[in-house]
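Minutes, project check-in

Agenda point 3 was the complex the collaborators sent over. CS summarized: three entities, 1014 residues total, and the question is how they sit relative to each other. Sequences were read into the notes so everyone works from the same version.
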Amino acid sequence: MSYTLAELASLTASQLNDEAFKDLVIEAVAPVQTAGNGDISFFADPKYKKHLSQCQASAVIINQELAQGYQSAALINKNPYATYARVAALLTPPEMPAAQIHPTAVVAESATIGSGCFIGPNSVIEADAVIADDCYLAAGVYIGRASRVGQSSRINANVSVYHHCVIGERNIIHSSAVIGADGFGFANDAGEWVKVPQTGGVQLGDDVEVGASTTIDRGAIDDTVIGNGVKLDNQIQIAHNVRIGDHTAIAGCSGVAGSAVIGKHCTIAGMCTIVGHIELTDNVHITAMSLITKSIKKPGSYSSGTAFEETTSWRKNSVRFKQLDVISRRLQQLENKF
Amino acid sequence: MSYTLAELASLTASQLNDEAFKDLVIEAVAPVQTAGNGDISFFADPKYKKHLSQCQASAVIINQELAQGYQSAALINKNPYATYARVAALLTPPEMPAAQIHPTAVVAESATIGSGCFIGPNSVIEADAVIADDCYLAAGVYIGRASRVGQSSRINANVSVYHHCVIGERNIIHSSAVIGADGFGFANDAGEWVKVPQTGGVQLGDDVEVGASTTIDRGAIDDTVIGNGVKLDNQIQIAHNVRIGDHTAIAGCSGVAGSAVIGKHCTIAGMCTIVGHIELTDNVHITAMSLITKSIKKPGSYSSGTAFEETTSWRKNSVRFKQLDVISRRLQQLENKF
Amino acid sequence: MSYTLAELASLTASQLNDEAFKDLVIEAVAPVQTAGNGDISFFADPKYKKHLSQCQASAVIINQELAQGYQSAALINKNPYATYARVAALLTPPEMPAAQIHPTAVVAESATIGSGCFIGPNSVIEADAVIADDCYLAAGVYIGRASRVGQSSRINANVSVYHHCVIGERNIIHSSAVIGADGFGFANDAGEWVKVPQTGGVQLGDDVEVGASTTIDRGAIDDTVIGNGVKLDNQIQIAHNVRIGDHTAIAGCSGVAGSAVIGKHCTIAGMCTIVGHIELTDNVHITAMSLITKSIKKPGSYSSGTAFEETTSWRKNSVRFKQLDVISRRLQQLENKF
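CS then shared the predicted structure for the full assembly.
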């Protein structure tokens, strides 16, 4: 794949710094340090300005400020990183094999496969499932009964989608992800657990990305619902009946417990735990490894945990933590004596 | 599926509030708010009594207390939630395709497949494996050499069971789960790791449920043992030689390190860590995201971690944590001065 | 498999305590408590010396100190545990079926399969992939386009390797692991996320073990790089562009965020979080469930978190944590009054 700089400007709503560069051919994105002829790099941070003049890329993506006085070829955009993302997508489009239902795929008679789809080796599409146009299912993908996959979605190898789930358009689901397994619902009866059938489904909006080995459980009665543009990293657990608002992003290893509601445009860092039946409003940000135990009604950044230190001193401090309430009371008593 | 209310009463050891309702036909479970004709809902909590009279379900499942003066159709049971679970299981039984070894399944000659089994597409059953009667293996399931799956167990798509593992009766194993991978055993020799062959297996009791993407490692020499009725949520890691007692439930993302022993009827919330070589007695409950570093001999509820707060204040407090031992000593000195 | 004690001594660079035992035949490793005729056990810890005389194994592996005055058959080595590991590997070698490309495997014409390989049922090898000699791919394994698997590597059922990844020699990859899924890279543009194509790959060194359901993402531009002899337990997340030094071991459920660099010979316990863009030097050790938020330049052991306690007292202490900075200032004020 290659584009002229003028084509890239047009396709990303950017400007050329000089029309003289319009026919320059760009073939690849590359890191600033190693870029060479035919490459394009980006600079998003003004503090790297000093490296700009040394960059050997054929062109760079920069903002108006960095472009001041810059003489070599540049695409100018107020968001260089997003522009880089779009340029990289043009230069390195995801692979799309020729449309085919591979002879080893097992497709139920009542399933519907749209035009332009690649249904890879050993994939299994159960009865009444619908795969919309232009989807890519790599290999060993399982789509359960009556589930639907929206147009232009890409499902990587060994993904499992249970029955009656809905995957939106332009989704990307990574390997070993599981959509629609039973929620963890059990009624305790005299010490033993009685399984509560999980009769709801899962709905993923459009433009959702689900990381490798991430699991999204089906709802107990109603559905689990993931909004448009939500991005989930690897190893995330989304429990039954969770609702996640549009354009929220969650980093790896985090877990969201049952019936929690997360707003729009939130970011949740890695290894966080959101307990069940609470609600986070829009624009809430949670730092790494935090435990959120109550609803958050005010946008902002929240955290829990302790700073790390050498284990020898940590041992002492972590034990003192168990005396913290007593320490506080003792301090109060001392203060009262004054 | 549909049942009369009298049939449901009989099958769940419940009572009708009025024999006049015995022939009423129930076809589905539904949430209290949206239930309508043919539906059954449940009320477990007396505080929702006010909603009871407005519920449009054909019948409700309630306890004796809520049934006082209730005029519409009701199933009465002292445990409405467990009764709901049983009714839901009757009305929405898990799918069981007609018995078949799918032509694309690869079954070793020396493997034994019981009657009534559905061995789904692209499943692989290795030599000397035994699948008991009435099992369901969805698709892409791998059962290693000489492993056994007990009667009426359901194994979902893309589950991997290594060699010489035993899965009990009526188990449910969710997609991407892995049973019997090697435990994490290495001997350090001059800075390099020498793999310790993991020659034990895994034993799952009866009525065990294993969540999506949960991993249960095989033992180093002896087996890893999961008791009857144990329920494991998604993304859980059970290390080699762990033993978990009957009817214990563990929520998503928790990890149990090697040779830890967990008692019966315990509950461990999400994202907890149980370190290796410790023992938790029966009826221990651990709250979310706790780190348990020592044996617990007394039943009860245990926790670790800190409450969450805004990140700006958390930064100050989390750093102060590193001074906690010093703070405590300074307080002691002040007290001594009085 | 069986070996004489002399053969085992020779193969593990150990000594016999008495040449009279050289023809003794050893058939299995067994735990000290249950070992019997034909078995070999090991004692690494002098504190178990009292059990040594009662052990019924045909032979034991011990160090010079424990061997003093020991009359029965023994292999003597300064590292009994590593010697046990090597003896166990000799007596219980991993299974290697006869070389075969299973008829249900789907191998691209341009892929290269070395001699002695077992390519199991329903495995998929994409175009230009290279599988070196003597590899074992169990079943349902996916190897993406142009990826390479080094000699004598073992890849278990339902593993997914994306395109352009390199797996070294003698690797062991466990089920449901995912190598080379897209890193979690998105540029925010007016509140929506624009995917940043992940154009780098993954490189695993030689003698790497990757646990079940562990995920190692491909790099954003450059590669994610795992050194020689690195051991990763189950359920670990390694983000894009992470670099891990040789012979480092990471326990289950830990996560390493993007572009973090971890040195050689480190150990990271279970459920730890290493944030992105930091660097841990060689020989750093992290205890369970710690959050590491800054670079560590000094070898040693580090920790975060709090000790666990009963939930009732924990609730009080965890709330007091939020007052810790204030408590510290109040204490300072009191001290100032003296």
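Noted in discussion: The domain at 3-91 of chain C is CATH 3.40.1390.10 (Udp-n-acetylmuramoylalanyl-d-glutamate--2,6- Diaminopimelate Ligase; Chain: A, domain 1).
Follow-up: revisit at the next meeting once the mutant set is ready.
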